[in-house]
Task: structure prediction
Amino acid sequence: MKIRKCEFSDIASVYGLIKNELDYPDIVEISVQERFKKMMARGNYSVYVAETDGEVCGFISTVTEFSLEVEGEFLRIIGLAVKTEFQRSGIGSALVMFVEDIAVKNGYGVITLSSNFKRAEAHKFYEKMGYGKTSYTFKKYL
Result:
């Protein structure tokens, strides 16, 4: 298994992970392609894929942010998914540790993420990785 930067040609696989593993049944591939292009153009977003035998089996996406209450920049994990048949094989952990290494190398003191209430297994995974529950995420669709 290797981890590398996501390329545009990987987006079909990432789309499948978002649709199937993250359970976004109404998501449209062309929209994922457009968002990927916008994210890459901004410069503070990153997307990495895990690949096994030439197959994309997972991805992680991040954004570098600032806030008034946190010193310096910090990293937010905004997406993480591993194909069902590859789950519990260390790929998710490897992806998280990969971005943790990037955060350390760049001097970021904090990594944050949000996880839907219904993803109880993901919560256990993050807690096992050393992440603690510190807040709720609120969302309002406009």
